[in-house]
Amino acid sequence: MLGLMQDWPLLMHTVLDHAAIQHPHRDVVSRSVEGPFHRTDYATIRGRALKVAQRLMKDGIRQGDRVATLAWNTWRHLEAWYGIAGAGAVYHTVNPRLFPEQIAWIMNHAGSRILMLDLTFVPLVQAMADKLPLVERFVILTDAAHMPQTSLRNAVPYEEWLAEADGDFAWVRVEENAAAGICYTSGTTGDPKGVVYSHRSNVIHAMICTQVDAFGLGAADRVMPVVPMFHANGWSLALSAPMVGAALVMPGAKLDGASVHEVIERERVTFSAAVPTVWMMLLQHLEATGARIGSMNRVAIGGSACPPAITRAYQEKYGVRVIHAWGMTELSPVGTLFAVKPEVAHLTGDDMLRLQAKQGTPPYTVEMKITDDDGRELPWDGTTFGRLKVKGPAITRRYFRREEEEVLDENGFFDTGDVATMDENGYMEITDRSKDVIKSGGEWISSITLENAAVGYPGVAEAAVVSMKDAKWDERPLLILVMKPGVLSPNLTQMRDFLADKVAKWWLPDDLVVLDEIPHTATGKILKTRLREMFKDHRPAA
Ligand code: ADP
């Protein structure tokens, strides 16, 4: 017997339709790439997104075609997303911080036929245009007055291009499992892989993110996505904000501490989301100027582990609750979020901060387990760590154009490549990435735990731990440090003494080297593959 409810497919445009009907005049404010602030609302965004869809079809874009964007968070990028998906096509967000060769590789792999790009990226794309043979047209996200001189194929200013559509158009109805967007992983581990979101997975994931114990979004919120839309699906905010009628405040191209602060104050932002580096920069600005962020009441921090010092400062000094979150491109991206369950509500002070250093608990729709190398499930005791695996309706089951490759285990779980503990209350804590864990005498040493402990040494700016080959133990930890300017580095004995009461004795590093700089990925994470390559023949002196 079937249920007798209506068939109402979960399509992206339904989110924008709802926002335009229920919250037509809600602000969508952007710092434009051209400079000035720009104000619009959901009703207007919807009208223009319909024009984008109509205009794309005039350019020959059809269902399933890819249309790429290389753009900051602004209202135009938002219109482009909904317009592309609303034409039945697939938005493909490209990360401008990748190397030009990677961008060309990704563009060609995705087969994007049109590229919409911000003024900022015209020189970059111009220099690599001959490597983008599949792009038929370049739409520059600006108006005629700001259009630069360019030899890019069929280049047009977005506003002129859009004006050629009258908006008399209906969304192209696709089925809810049709592709809506593609985002490539940043390639920390090998070639970038294309993650293909569907309309259904995007809508379900956005609903999850609005929940009270997730981002807790409502119509009274003024949401500022600092996390760029080209990072891991923009953490859902381009969907979850309009879904509940929250105002959107788009920060554009300027993401330094002072600029982010200016937008928060000017637009009375209540909620924001970004990687720890951004919140570190804002904190430095606040400390240096004595400025406040009175309108903000919570902030989601993820992408890499949020140091307790940041959580403490925001919560205790600025009254902003920190929502530590973990996720990855393959999870749409949110996998866990930190909220206080009644079981832990009695914790205070440092005990609560210690718990908040964990990445939180999976929301409904994210099934989670930890296993050993043979796939056996491990206990949720807060200390045993193993491979973190997940299952759910907004989690990857295959990568684009690698359909032959099985990425799920025999029970349908996706191996995240992260190593984690789960505690008795369901809180997950990342202890490493599986490729970075140091396997010493059959036991695992967490490189992240060692790094976090080592940065506590006075004067250490950054720490990374990689494995060294060892005849007896197979692998042993090598500690790599970058010191703050003008500070003398500790020697190995001093560092080992410092770490002795923080980690198990057999975890202590067997050698230490100091570098001027540690290599990073385009998304700001330590590039362990490069470090491993640099130190592959390194052996401890003694
Ligand atoms: P990539 O996998 O290419 O680096 P992602 O942006 O998808 O690109 O990164 C996902 C990874 O980032 C996760 O697998 C995890 O290792 C790391 N990560 C994300 N959030 C956190 C967090 N809160 N704490 C620790 N690590 C995190």
From TrEMBL:
InterPro entries: AMP-bd_C, AMP-bd_C_sf, AMP-binding_CS, AMP-dep_synth/lig_dom, ANL_N_sf
GO molecular function: ligase activity
EC numbers on record: 6.2.1.44
Gene3D superfamilies listed in its UniProt record: 3.30.300.30, N-terminal domain of ligase-like
Catalysed reactions, semicolon-separated: 3-(methylsulfanyl)propanoate + ATP + CoA = 3-(methylsulfanyl)propanoyl-CoA + AMP + diphosphate
Keyword Transferase appears in the UniProt entry: no
Superkingdom assignment: Bacteria
GO terms of biological process kind: fatty acid metabolic process
Annotated ranges, domain AMP-binding enzyme C-terminal: 450-525
Domain AMP-dependent synthetase/ligase: 17-400
PROSITE patterns with a match to the protein in the record: AMP_BINDING (PS00455)
Principal EC category: ligase
Lipid metabolism recorded as keyword: yes
UniProt KW keywords: Fatty acid metabolism, Ligase, Lipid metabolism
CDD domains, sorted: ttLC_FACS_AlkK_like (cd12119)
PANTHER family tied to this protein: ACYL-ACTIVATING ENZYME, BUTANOATE--COA LIGASE AAE1-RELATED
Family designation: Belongs to the ATP-dependent AMP-binding enzyme family.
Protein name in the entry: 3-methylmercaptopropionyl-CoA ligase
The species this protein was found in: Neoroseomonas eburnea
Organism lineage string: Bacteria, Pseudomonadati, Pseudomonadota, Alphaproteobacteria, Acetobacterales
